[in-house]
Amino acid sequence: MINLIGIAPAFTFILNKGFVPGECEYNPQEFGNAVLVMIGSQFSLRFVRDRGQVFIDAGDNKVGWYQLEYVLEFVDSMITQAQLGEPPEPKHLAALLQEFWEKVIALFSTPEETSQLHVFSKQKSTALLDKIFHKL
After folding, report:
1. Which of 13, 38, 59, 72 can bridge 19 by disulfide, Cβ–Cβ 3.0-4.6 Å?
2. Considering only CA atoms, which of 100, 72, 102 is closest in space to residue 84?
3. Are strands 20-27 and 64-67 parallel, antiparallel or unpaired?
4. Contact, 89 vs 113, CB < 8 A?
């Protein structure tokens, strides 16, 4: 069993915002890999720990899942991938999520905005893949 403190302690502030544990998977025999979904009323957060690295997605099964760093870049164009690092540090993502909480709620409350986020995320993912495979 994995909990929020065990996978991403910087995000415990979401417990005070009404988030509750949902899907949970923990594989101690597989490098401690884990998945934890925290369910909120406007959006959910999915935490994936893979070989010690933590990746965070925002969204849900209905609207789709988006990398939290893309969500934050979308709601504030002053945030850049270079500032966030590769991979982004969960503590930094948590601080930015707290700062832009209302914008993220508004994003997931509006289907038009979520649709634009989908396009933005695809563009970001395509650019990342191009960057990776052009290095080869």
Report:
1. 38
2. 72
3. unpaired
4. no
